[in-house]
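Re: that chain you flagged

S.,

Sorry for the slow reply, it's been a week of failed gels. I finally had a moment to sit down with the sequence you sent. For the record, here it is as I used it:
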Amino acid sequence: MTSEDQEESQSGADTLLTLSNIQYLVEGLDSLLQTNLDGYKRVKVIKLRDELSAYIGNMFSD
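Prediction finished late last night. Pasting the structure tokens below so you have them in one place:
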């Protein structure tokens, strides 16, 4: 895959991040945290959830 293809793939992925999709992902990550995850996976899920929550917050502060 060339760097141009990777850029196109990345820009296409960014357009799918609508507010409702991000909220749905955050809710799913919260549900996932209620399961029995090991420490490493739990940290990754928490980090992703926090990043998505911050992204939502930044949408309204800009």
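What I noticed first: The mean pLDDT is 79.

Talk soon,
D.
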